[in-house]
Amino acid sequence: MQEGIDLCLGCRACETVCPTNVRYGDILMSAVEVLKENKDMDVIEKVNRTAAFKFALKNKSVLRIMNKGLYAYQVSGIQKVVKNYNLLKPIKKFNQMNKAMPDVILSKRITRNINPFRRNDLSIGSFQGCIMDSFLRTLTNLPSKS
Description:
Largest sheet: none
Order of helices and strands: HHHHHHHH
Number of strands: 0
Helix content: 40-55%
Distance between the termini: 48 Å
Radius of gyration: 19 Å
Structural class: mainly alpha
Mean pLDDT: 78
């Protein structure tokens, strides 16, 4: 159970799409508390968790910088070298994350598209979070149907 909890971002986006209205955020927070009680974290893990959850994931600028860094890591060939020589083997969690990392697409700021045919009485909003920038970017690059 701990591995799944560790990989969850805690964004609660799953709650909005759950057909049975399960409050996963509450379940997650309870599970995190139980796991914290049973585990002593070392200083490095405390610093990493604080940096990730209190700073990085709450800041879009930091997320964009991380996106660019991961993109450079992949296209430069460093990721292939790390995988081929198994350089992260001593650090089990980083090794697992490196193996599971999908190809990164550079994210761009989502700008409002001014369309003269747009009806003013209709609008749509979307959550612009950790993956939505990249997801919406791929949707806008789809070939048009004609």
